[in-house]
Amino acid sequence: MVSRVIPVDTFDLVIFGGTGDLARRKILPALFRRFVAGQMGPGSRVIGAARADLDAEGYRQFTREAIEEFGNGKAYDPKELDAFLEALDFVTIDALGEDGWADLAKLLDVGKITAFYFSVAPRLFGELAERLHRFGMATPDSRIVIEKPFGRDLASARALNESLAQHFDESQLYRIDHYLGKETVQNLMAVRFGNMLFEPLWNAQYVDHIQITVAETVGVGGRGDYYDRSGAMRDMMQNHLMQLLCLIAMEPPAKFDPDAVRDEKLKVIRALDPVEPGDIVRGQYSETEELPGYRAHVGHPDSRTESFVAMKLKISNWRWAGTPFYLRTGKRLRARTSEIAVVFKETPHSIFGPEAGRHRNILTIRLQPNEGMDLGVTIKEPGPGGMRLVDVPLDMTFADALGPDAEDIPDAYERLIMDVIRGNQTLFMRGDEVEAAWAWTDPIIEDWEARRDEPQPYDTGSSGPDDSLALMFRDGRRWREIRA
Ligand code: NAD
């Protein structure tokens, strides 16, 4: 059983871009669930701020519809929804103009925790920060939540950091990578640093290699225009997969405190070797009988943007020298799945002889679906006939292990928003981390651009281009199957 003490805070949360897709699908439903969980203290308010010509009543209706559509399908008491909607307000505001700002300033209570969620295009971040300052809302107590993408290269990330730093201290900035809000991702730290079992083996001496896969079945959908300017490297690898890599590879921080954790993550990024072009495979999904291929999807017949990328990385430090990390992510693949697999080395000697076969322990951490983890253990195959060995999973699906409590696990946005309110930055990216990740990514993308590198086509429903399989085969290894 899990025992929880739920702290209650009173706060104002202003959502710039409060009528956008992200607010509708994620932020507002997440806030409602935290309200139902009793975490929004009396007097808390959620204030939508966007260009739309709405009043508070109109925003309540907008939010009601958002929760009905995206509220996880869970049953809720309509009275609770009414009570939540009472806490809502709306201000029509233009991030690039002067309208609405004085109204917003008047609405806010001095001395209350105030978070400003920048759920708008990144080009508006600096404008919002400057106006919050000019209209007297940038106080030492205010917190800024920033959505991805945080830049598209080192120069633009730096410029964003600088524009925010003019008015806010780093301790007030919460750069969201929603992967860090996932229960399993935090469990990764609990497993590594809360058990004696794994950490002594967590190094190049015992780990053969580590695989990280984030596979989607969907194509670029309605985001074609944005995606084509970004690609899998910028959209997924530089942030989400890099964050997973950091958590799996970092040294134990001295304590679970925001800067201690982020210092260790930063060291991992800085220890990454530059990637050889031969250690990277890029792909683009082809058309099927029913579905358009990538280029038709984004409406750019010559596009060289990748919808898939796989790479082999090396971390040059004492712990990991000699253990490769294989990362891949892509769209229109065989199944929607995200997992990390830590593949241990074979035993140095088999007492059971060659007939017993070759076996390895694999610790798999499943981020989605079926959040959980399993440890592949080698045992004797039952029955007579000698010592034949077989690998079986010690499986722990959280929903089974934790029982009904698992159903109440907050989703990533719920957790991250409440962390902002509590002032806990552990699960948010620090400015120097983001810049280090771009500093590592930039030369890779610049090299593709200089060589006019063409991604390889791959079939919808496959595991990506054949060369991505070869990336591991040539090292005598293989990817784990992509399956739901
Ligand atoms: P959207 O286009 O659906 O909504 C944009 C919002 O910004 C609207 O509320 C609009 O009124 C407001 N807005 C636009 N210009 C404005 C201005 N000048 N002044 C004030 N308000 C203005 O966008 P979205 O999908 O909600 O995305 C918002 C941000 O979140 C983007 O940076 C996006 O990259 C990021 N993001 C979105 C998703 C997602 O699933 N939608 C996921 C991750 C990150």
Can you tell me about this structure?
The protein has 484 residues and is an alpha/beta fold. It folds into two domains: 11-147, NAD(P)-binding Rossmann-like Domain (Rossmann fold), CATH 3.40.50.720; 180-411 and 429-473, 2-Layer Sandwich (Dihydrodipicolinate Reductase, domain 2), CATH 3.30.360.10. It has helices at 21-36, 56-70, 78-86, 101-107, 125-134, 154-165, 183-194, 224-228, 231-249, 258-270, 294-298, 398-401, 412-422, 431-451, 466-473, and strands at 11-16, 45-50, 88-92, 113-118, 142-146, 173-175, 207-215, 280-285, 308-313, 325-330, 337-344, 362-368, 372-380, 389-397, 456-458. The strands form two sheets. It has a nine-stranded mixed beta sheet with strand order 14-13-12-11-7-10-9-8-15, sandwiched between helices. A six-stranded parallel beta sheet has the order 3-2-1-4-5-6, with helices on both faces. Strand 12 and strand 13 (372-380) form a beta hairpin. The longest helix has 21 residues, at 431-451. The two termini are 28 Å apart. Bound molecules: nicotinamide-adenine-dinucleotide. Nicotinamide-adenine-dinucleotide binds next to helix 1.
Order of strands in the sheet with the most strands?
14-13-12-11-7-10-9-8-15
| Terminus-to-terminus distance | 28 Å
Structural class given helices, strands, pairing? alpha/beta
**Ligand list:** nicotinamide-adenine-dinucleotide
* CATH fold category name of the largest domain: Dihydrodipicolinate Reductase, domain 2
Portion of residues within helices = 25-40%
Number of domains: 2
Helix and strand string, N-terminal first?
Answer: EHEHHEHEHEHEHEHHHEHEEEEEEHHHEH
CATH superfamily heading of the largest domain:
Dihydrodipicolinate Reductase, domain 2
C-alpha Rg (nearest Å): 24 Å
By oligomeric state, this entry counts as single chain
Number of helices: 15
Low-confidence stretches: none
Q: Strand count, sense and closure of the main sheet?
A: 9 strands, mixed
